[in-house]
């Protein structure tokens, strides 16, 4: 894969399961869908993949399987982060051999490191690989917010090329966009505010909704990148109810329920996550029908 553009519509891919095991047939269907719909990149083993319940062997299997299936036709980002720096370094070192074009590294969860600890953690991981590194800030999941000044400091590292920002803090994102070096990308980590983020200078999204409506998410991001803000705004509102519904329950519960309705995978999560409640499924079905994705 040639140099990656960290922009456009990337999908944070779910991990399909059957009876607790990775469903390779379902995974193949999802990958074929994204190739057909023009998704700009795929994230393997991100939050939406239920990565905390995947073993290291399963993560490596998923990355290698996806890389072989897409065969260089789409850029791949491998989630190698964790709250143990040495373990994250080991998985990051493996990423290139497994077929990854970049790595996504989340802020350590539960430890609640200081900002100085975050800098040292990410620098250690970045030095362990020649691949581009994408930082991932999601304080609602990790218990720690990576401040703008920390992201900006890290953006000056040679192979740290982007940040997935899921803090919801637009003021923080504006600081990053206006002060990071040229060529450093900020990607939305929250589908519902992808358009506002892109209007401020963000370059795209790593999407949950893109699992369910990849063509529609791609259209929104492409219109925004082209500066067609009127068209992007219209597309934003077409996607808004779906974007909200993806978080009625903990991600990826609604996404998996919707994909099951579309006949792509089984509606199965790993404990401690469980399938969506009946009310959530009814709401999802109504939205999918309204969008023309389900008859």
Can you give a write-up of this model?
- The protein is of the alpha/beta class and 295 residues long.
- It has a single domain (8-246), classed as Aldolase class I (TIM Barrel, Alpha-Beta Barrel).
- Helix content is 44%, strand content 14%.
- The chain contains 12 helices and 10 strands.
- It has an 8-stranded parallel beta barrel with strand order 1-4-5-6-7-8-9-10, surrounded by 5 helices.
- Helix 7 (170-179) links the parallel strand 8 and strand 9 (185-188).
- The N and C termini lie far apart (38 Å).
- The mean pLDDT is 97.
Summarize the helix and strand pattern as letters. Answer: EEEHEHEHEHEHHEHEHEHHHH
Query: From the alpha-carbon coordinates, what is the Rg to the nearest angstrom?
Result: 18 Å
Tally of helical runs: 12
Total beta strand runs: 10
Give the strand line-up of the largest sheet: 1-4-5-6-7-8-9-10
The share of residues in extended strands comes to 5-15%
Question: Distance between the terminal alpha carbons, to the nearest Å?
Answer: 38 Å
Any idea what the CATH superfamily is called? Answer: Aldolase class I
Unreliable stretches: none
Instruction: Write down the CATH class.
Output: Alpha Beta
Kindly state the percentage of residues in helix: 40-55%
Number of domains: 1
Write the CATH fold name.
TIM Barrel
The CATH architecture is Alpha-Beta Barrel
- What is the averaged pLDDT score? 97
Structural class: alpha/beta
| Dominant shape | globular
């Amino acid at each position: 894969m040639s140099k990656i553009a960290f922009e456009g519509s990337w999908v944070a891919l779910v991990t399909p399961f059957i009876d607790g095991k990775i469903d390779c047939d379902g995974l193949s269907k999802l990958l074929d869908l994204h190739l057909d719909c023009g998704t700009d990149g795929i994230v393997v083993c991100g939050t939406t993949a239920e990565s905390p319940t995947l073993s290291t062997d399963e993560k490596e299997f998923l990355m290698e399987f996806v890389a072989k299936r897409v065969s260089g036709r789409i850029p791949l980002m491998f989630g190698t982060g964790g709250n143990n720096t040495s373990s994250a370094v080991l998985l990051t070192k493996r990423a290139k051999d497994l077929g990854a074009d970049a790595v996504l590294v989340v802020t350590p969860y539960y430890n609640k490191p200081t900002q100085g600890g975050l800098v040292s953690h990410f620098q250690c991981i970045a030095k362990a690989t020649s691949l581009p590194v994408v930082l991932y800030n999601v304080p609602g999941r990790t218990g720690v917010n990576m401040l703008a000044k920390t992201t900006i400091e890290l953006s000056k590292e040679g192979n740290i090329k982007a940040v997935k920002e899921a803090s919801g803090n637009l003021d923080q994102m504006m600081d990053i966009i206006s002060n990071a070096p040229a060529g450093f990308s900020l990607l939305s980590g929250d589908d519902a505010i992808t358009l506002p983020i892109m209007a401020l200078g963000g370059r795209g999204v790593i999407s949950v909704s893109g699992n369910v409506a990849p063509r529609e998410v791609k259209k929104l991001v492409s219109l925004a990148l082209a500066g067609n803000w009127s068209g992007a705004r219209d597309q934003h509102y077409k996607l808004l109810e779906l974007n909200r519904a993806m978080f009625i329950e903990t991600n990826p519960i609604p996404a998996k329920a919707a994909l099951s309705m579309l006949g792509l995978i089984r509606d199965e999560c790993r404990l401690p996550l469980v399938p969506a409640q009946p009310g959530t499924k009814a709401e999802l079905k109504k939205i999918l029908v309204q969008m023309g994705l389900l008859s």
